[in-house]
Amino acid sequence: MKYLPIWLAWLAALASNGFIVYLWVVFGLAAAGGQGSDARGFIESTVAGVGLSFLISAILMARDKLAAGIVSVFSMMPLVIAFTVAYGKFIKV
Length: 93
Known about the structure:
Elements: H1 4-35, H2 40-62, H3 66-73, H4 76-90
Helix pairs in contact: 1-2, 1-3, 2-3, 2-4
């Protein structure tokens, strides 16, 4: 019971950022489809940003740095945007 508020805070952070990423994906795919462009890079960069954020959070939470694990979940959307910009500028296939 000692860690219950921390896990609830982590779940709240995850839910709020998950909703923002969901909106990012829905509107991003609609924009990519409207322009007739390939959405592969958009999806890959989104998955990479979300996955890296989860990995950082899991490592920190496993090391009992619970507050840092919660804060790292908030890095999800900035990582997704950074990977999308990097993919668009440098990795275009």
